[in-house]
Amino acid sequence: MSSHSGDSESGDASSSRTPFSASSSKSTRRPPGACTHCKFLKARPFSFSIRSLRLIAPTPPNQIRCEFIPEENICVRCKSGGHDCVSQGRKKRKAAPTHEDLQERSYSQDLQIQSLLRQLDEIRAHSRTRYWISQAQAEAVALKRQMAQTSSGNRPGVWDQPPSAQAYDPRFVNVQPDVVHVASAPRTIPATHHAARSTLGKSAPSRVSALLV
């Protein structure tokens, strides 16, 4: 009986110790992954020595390991350098999208592309309509100006020109430019013609009297 009672007491004592040890191990356990100081050493490309001011060759990232000491809750590198060993843990990876999610995303992207193409077509049609409206307005203004000049008695674009330009304009003159120029120019009688007429007039009475005799 005593041995049985002793076994039960030892079993109770062991069962009472196990949850305490598990809880204590959970409390001292840190998140998995390297500490912040070791991550910084892996990320930096190079460093300088303060004493010699020389460039120190960087250590390859695969050779930098955060060796954690569970009993002291610190890694070897932080312990030797006197740094605070803090581990932030690894980031949780996003779950890969399922086939349905990819289909929904592609469908929404197709709808967005179609709406953008529709907006582009509307913008092009609107700009084309504005262009034709502006062209029609310009032609209407030119036609009104032409009708106003025609009603006032002046043919547009011709009678506003100088006389020389009107004479040489082939659209409104059906004769050659040289003929028009001669017809429009004043007649000039040369001096030799006047002299011949004067001599002929003086000699005419003498010739008539000679014929009568």
Please write out the topology.
Elements: H1 2-28, H2 36-43, E1 47-48, E2 55-56, E3 68-69, E4 74-75, H3 76-81, H4 99-151, H5 163-168, H6 177-184, H7 191-212
Antiparallel strand pairs: 1-2, 3-4
Structural class: mainly alpha
Low-pLDDT residue intervals, each spanning 5 or more residues: 1-27, 163-168, 172-185
Mean pLDDT: 67
Tell me the helix content.
Answer: 55-70%
The strands making up the biggest β-sheet line up spatially as 1-2
Measured distance between first and last alpha carbons: 208 Å
Calculate Rg over CA atoms: 58 Å
Sketch the major β-sheet.
Answer: 2 strands, antiparallel
Strand content is: under 5%
H/E series: HHEEEEHHHHH
How many helix segments? 7
- Please provide the count of β strands: 4
Region (Disordered): 1-32, 84-106
Organism: Fibroporia radiculosa
Protein name: Zn(2)-C6 fungal-type domain-containing protein
Biased composition (Low complexity): 11-32
Short characterization:
This protein has seven helices and four strands, in the order ααββββααααα. With 213 residues, the protein is mainly alpha-helical.
Characterization of this structure:
The protein is mainly alpha-helical and 213 residues long. Among the domains are: 16-81, no CATH class; 120-153; 156-185, no CATH class. It is built from seven helices and four strands. It has helices spanning 2-28, 36-43, 76-81, 99-151, 163-168, 177-184, 191-212, and strands spanning 47-48, 55-56, 68-69, 74-75. The strands form two sheets. It has a two-stranded antiparallel ribbon. A hairpin with a 4-residue loop joins strand 3 (68-69) and strand 4. The longest helix is centred in the middle third of the chain and has 53 residues, at 99-151. Mean pLDDT is 67; it is low at 1-27, 163-168 and 172-185.
